């Protein structure tokens, strides 16, 4: 006897506008955070006949409510009123999502993140549930000055995580942090895999000049200020250019530009809103990646680089040491330490492999196996079964 497929509902943010083969109104949406790990898992789940997946997406930018099916997955786009979601403590989300779920009747709901109240909503709905931590906002706020939104999100994160029965997170650091802070919380480590396109990058590293790449939000938490200061001081020693893939935030960029030399500034190339294939193309020619974060759970940019075979100079913070192995595929230094970052860059440029954009083959095979989409999908299916078997564990 064939068992019925497991019905799972995701909510409440998904980068639907980044998908191909979607209705015309979706293609006109402004692009928000690409959340590439969700699209990678979606592609794997589309192949699984034992799963019936629904994706519930809430956004004020939708023209109207819209439901469509793509590759066997049903998407429910729900238009929300502007300015009411967070002030209502996400009760607006709760009402709208509950209405959709009554028709779906899912076996398990999967709340993606604490940033937009998904964990709070899941706790109110009464279904077996899984919450995935995408960023530890309360930890970030201790390391880097939080915005008003981040203060509110951090408070709600702490509130929600005292009530959810089961969470997934990436990296050993995050698992240990959550278990220490919330002793009753059941935590499963599930790594989010980079898109398969990064596993198959054909490397043609540029070495004249060396090409450094930085991918991510160009802000204080990501260490953009320390990186620019280090490179400005090294400009007389090393022939390089810097590609920044990401959008600078607020006046941060102008402040940084005023503190470095005009000659160095001319070596920087800025690009934004790149697709995953375009990022992979940039990684094909990058000599090495710089990731000077002050706080990061498991930066997707680092994982994309290590499975592509790009050496990474990163900080020994959060989950980064899970992916960067000193002497094998990169170097690590202390967060916020200008002298250490300069020395790490200098040493990497003189390394027989890193200096020409190469890594040890063994480390490349290791990271590709550890960060495979197939493993990610298998682990999430296991977690769904855990939630279904013991919803209040």
Please write the string of helix (H) and strand (E) elements: EHHEEEHEHEHHEHEHEHEHHEHEHEEHHH
N-to-C span = 29 Å
Rg of Cα set:
21 Å
The figure for the number of domains is: 2
Instruction: Specify the overall morphology.
Output: globular
Number of H/I helices: 16
List the uncertain runs: none
The percentage helix is: 25-40%
Structural class: alpha/beta
Residue share in β-strands: 15-25%
Number of E-type strands: 14
Spatial ordering of strands, largest sheet: 3-4-2-1-5-6-7-8
Largest sheet: 8 strands, mixed
> CATH homologous superfamily of the largest domain - what is it?
Glycogen Phosphorylase B
Query: What's the CATH architecture name of the largest domain?
Result: 3-Layer(aba) Sandwich
- Taking all residues together, what is the mean pLDDT? 93
At the first level of CATH, what is the class of the largest domain?
A: Alpha Beta
Can you tell me the CATH topology of the largest domain? Rossmann fold
Tags for this entry?
single chain, 393 residues, alpha/beta, Rossmann fold, 2 domains, eight-stranded mixed beta sheet, six-stranded parallel beta sheet, 14 strands, 38% helix, globular
Summary?
The protein is an alpha/beta fold. The chain has two domains: 6-193 and 372-389, Glycogen Phosphorylase B (Rossmann fold), CATH 3.40.50.2000; 196-370, Rossmann fold (3-Layer(aba) Sandwich), CATH 3.40.50.
Detailed description of the structure:
By secondary structure, the protein is α/β, with parallel strands linked by helices. It has 2 domains: 206 residues, Glycogen Phosphorylase B (Rossmann fold, 3-Layer(aba) Sandwich), CATH 3.40.50.2000; 175 residues, Rossmann fold, CATH 3.40.50.2000. Helix content is 38%, strand content 18%. It has 16 helices and 14 strands. Strands 3-4-2-1-5-6-7-8 form an 8-stranded mixed β-sheet. The chain has a 6-stranded parallel β-sheet with strand order 11-10-9-12-13-14, with helices on both faces. The chain is globular and about 65 Å long. It starts with 5 loop residues before the first strand and ends with a helix. The relative contact order is 0.12.
């Amino acid at each position: 006897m064939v068992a019925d497929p497991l019905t799972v509902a995701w909510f409440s943010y998904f980068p639907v506008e980044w998908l191909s083969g979607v209705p015309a109104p979706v293609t006109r949406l402004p692009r928000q955070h690409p959340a590439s790990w969700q699209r990678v898992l979606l592609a794997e789940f589309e192949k699984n006949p034992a799963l019936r997946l629904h994706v519930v997406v809430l956004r004020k930018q939708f023209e109207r409510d819209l439901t469509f099916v793509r590759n066997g997955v049903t998407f429910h786009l729900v238009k929300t009123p502007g300015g009411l979601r967070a002030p209502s403590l996400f009760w607006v989300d709760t009402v709208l999502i509950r209405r959709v779920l009554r028709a779906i009747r899912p076996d398990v709901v999967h709340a993606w993140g604490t940033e937009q109240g998904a964990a709070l909503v899941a706790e109110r709905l009464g279904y077996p549930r899984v919450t995935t931590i995408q960023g530890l906002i309360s930890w970030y706020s201790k390391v880097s000055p939080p915005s008003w939104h981040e203060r509110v999100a951090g408070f709600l994160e702490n509130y929600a995580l005292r009530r959810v029965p089961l969470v997934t997170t990436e990296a050993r650091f995050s698992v240990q942090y959550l278990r220490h802070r919330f002793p009753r919380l059941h935590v499963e480590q599930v790594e989010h895999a980079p898109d398969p396109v990064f596993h198959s990058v054909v490397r043609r590293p540029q070495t004249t000049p060396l090409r450094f790449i930085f991918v991510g939000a160009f802000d204080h938490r990501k260490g953009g200020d320390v990186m620019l200061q280090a490179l400005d001081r090294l400009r007389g020693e090393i022939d390089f250019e810097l590609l920044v893939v990401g959008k600078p935030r607020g006046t941060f960029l102008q402040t940084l530009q005023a503190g470095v030399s005009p000659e160095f500034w001319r070596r920087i190339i800025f690009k934004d809103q790149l697709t995953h294939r375009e990022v992979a193309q940039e990684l094909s020619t990058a000599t090495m990646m710089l990731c000077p974060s002050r706080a990061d759970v498991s930066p997707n940019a680092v994982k994309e680089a290590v499975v592509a075979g790009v050496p990474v100079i990163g900080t020994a913070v959060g989950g980064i040491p899970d992916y960067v192995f000193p002497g094998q595929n990169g170097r690590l230094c202390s967060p916020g330490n200008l002298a250490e970052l300069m020395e790490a860059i200098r040493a990497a440029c003189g390394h027989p492999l890193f200096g020409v954009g190469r890594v040890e083959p063994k480390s490349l095979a290791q990271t590709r196996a550890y960060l495979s989409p197939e493993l990610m999908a298998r682990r999430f299916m296991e977690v769904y079964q855990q939630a279904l078997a013991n919803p209040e564990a």
